[in-house]
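Quiz preparation item.
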């Protein structure tokens, strides 16, 4: 029997986080921890995302974006950057400012929708359905090809994007439902707007067979969530002994409630070396 309420509404981030770490999902979605932790990466990304949304909706001009970023940065990016990333705080601020100063305003694309929230249903293997909600960052029309394209704003760099590319497109395939609802057809392309890479835009053609695979995966995942027992929920993300996982120690919102969120102690020789400088 599911520990989630009967009227629970699913999202892609929930399905992804379940596969990332069952215990983290349990703490955040079922136990409902009150002091969920933020992180500087998410705060900076949310600020830039918010500014892009305000621009797309006509609430903020391109010429004002960098100054607005500078004005709001100190109030919205408030969590310390990881200690091991020396100098990254300055680099992160500066790269965001430069991106917005030189923002290309999606030249060549007509902006149709921004931050478009939609509701749909996911079909489980047993034929029952569950409510699903999503928010599409941008729906645009290519002015040359007339193609409909979904774009999602991401802060990932090229190498990180490549490693997670297939997983990330899973999200956009689910969001293709929104375009089908609005325009009576699926999008022609799916794409990412990588604002940490000077606004690089990466797209691929929509594949309906892949869409069907993704929707089946979503249904199976929800079924697995609802069939999970307390023993299943206590399963932490596996990390090699003595190793530190960046997600667990720096990014997970439940890191202060989980033993995996505590970095391993320094090696004994390193400890003595540091104390004899």
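Solution:
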């Amino acid at each position: 029997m599911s520990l989630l309420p009967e009227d629970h509404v699913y999202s892609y981030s929930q399905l992804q986080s379940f596969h990332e770490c069952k215990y983290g999902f349990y703490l955040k979605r079922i136990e409902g921890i009150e002091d969920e932790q933020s992180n500087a990466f998410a705060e900076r990304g949310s600020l830039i995302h918010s500014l892009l949304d305000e621009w797309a909706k006509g609430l903020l001009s391109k010429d004002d974006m960098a100054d607005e970023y500078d004005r709001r940065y100190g109030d919205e990016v408030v969590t310390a950057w990881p200690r091991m990333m020396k100098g990254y705080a300055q680099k992160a601020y500066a790269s965001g400012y430069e991106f917005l100063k030189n923002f290309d305003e999606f030249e060549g694309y007509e902006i149709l929708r921004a931050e478009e929230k939609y509701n749909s249903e996911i079909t489980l293997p047993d034929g029952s359905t569950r409510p699903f909600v999503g928010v599409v960052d941008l729906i645009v029309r290519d002015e040359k090809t007339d193609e409909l394209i979904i774009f999602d704003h991401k802060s990932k760099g090229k190498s990180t994007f490549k490693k997670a590319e297939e997983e990330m497109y899973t999200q956009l395939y689910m969001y293709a439902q929104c375009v089908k609802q609005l325009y009576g057809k699926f999008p022609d392309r799916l794409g990412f707007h990588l604002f940490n890479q000077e606004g690089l835009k990466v797209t691929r053609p929509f594949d309906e067979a892949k869409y069907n695979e993704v929707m089946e995966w979503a249904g199976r995942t929800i079924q697995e969530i609802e069939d999970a027992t307390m023993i299943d929920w206590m399963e932490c993300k596996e990390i090699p002994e003595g190793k530190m996982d960046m997600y667990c120690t720096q990014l997970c919102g439940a890191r202060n409630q989980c033993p995996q969120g505590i970095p391993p102690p320094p090696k004994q020789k390193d400890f003595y070396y540091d104390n004899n400088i």
